[in-house]
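Bumping my old thread because nobody answered last time. Still need a sequence for this structure:
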């Protein structure tokens, strides 16, 4: 569809048309123009504009995840009429304790890629309560992915990686950590960030007297698939054949492939 032609022919105000054309021409719109779209534009038009921007950034690709919903409580300090999480203590409210939450996650399918936590704003549960839930979830997740906020400084993000990995090491007490050997002909910025993260891992290994070994991407692919230039889909397919576990998340698959390749060769 020619979005510009569609907007020209649509019965909307000139102001909305001009703002929409700025978006299509990849021009930045102001805060006031954003408010105008929010208050005046039809929902369908907003969706079309949002999809246009998405396709400019990501092409015609859509990504899905498979998650489990955890609802710690429906008790909330607010009284939003449209929300089911608006009960009060002593009434129809319910609460799950940490053990009950963890038990629900343990029963979830192994191929989930997200634990989605949603519920009421409980009057007696603060951010530390939820950070404890997140910490426990990461400890029982089979294929751990540590994600840090891009809005935080690099030193804070590395510190978060260190603290979360420290909990994993404490729980599972690994004898060996396998890392991917880095090559500097790739994106330099990416290599620097990965090197910094590996430095944190090396520090943790030294503190806990854990052996560290390296495998190159070629060695990993050769061992898993028999072909050193195999793509990610081929690696994921062989992981499923070897382990019976279907892993579609790239970072998870990379981590499992490294461990599996090391196990096969040793």
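Sorry it took so long. Here it is:
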């Amino acid at each position: 569809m020619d979005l510009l032609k569609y907007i020209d022919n649509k019965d909307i105000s000139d102001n909305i048309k001009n703002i929409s054309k700025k978006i299509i021409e990849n021009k930045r719109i102001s805060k006031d123009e954003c408010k105008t779209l929010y208050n005046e534009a039809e929902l369908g038009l907003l969706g079309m504009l949002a999809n246009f921007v998405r396709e400019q950034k990501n092409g015609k690709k859509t990504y899905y995840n498979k998650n489990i919903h955890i609802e710690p409580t429906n008790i909330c300090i607010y009284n939003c009429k449209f929300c089911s999480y608006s009960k009060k203590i002593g009434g129809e409210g319910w609460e799950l304790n940490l053990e009950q939450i963890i038990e629900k996650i343990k029963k979830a399918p192994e191929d989930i890629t997200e634990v989605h936590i949603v519920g009421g704003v409980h009057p007696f549960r603060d951010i530390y309560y939820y950070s404890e839930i997140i910490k426990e979830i990461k400890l029982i997740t089979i294929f751990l992915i540590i994600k840090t906020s891009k809005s935080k400084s690099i030193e804070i993000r590395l510190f978060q990686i260190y603290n979360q990995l420290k909990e994993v090491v404490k729980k599972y007490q690994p004898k060996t950590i396998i890392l991917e050997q880095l090559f500097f002909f790739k994106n330099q910025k990416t290599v620097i960030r990965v090197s910094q993260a590996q430095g944190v891992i090396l520090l943790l290994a030294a503190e806990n007297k854990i052996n560290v070994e390296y495998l190159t991407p070629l060695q990993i692919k050769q061992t898993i698939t028999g072909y050193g230039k195999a793509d990610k889909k081929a690696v994921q397919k062989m992981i499923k054949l070897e382990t019976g576990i279907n892993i579609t998340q790239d970072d998870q698959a990379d981590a499992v492939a490294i461990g599996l390749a090391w196990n096969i060769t040793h």
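The chain has three domains: 3-58, 67-140, 154-265. Let me know if any region looks off to you.
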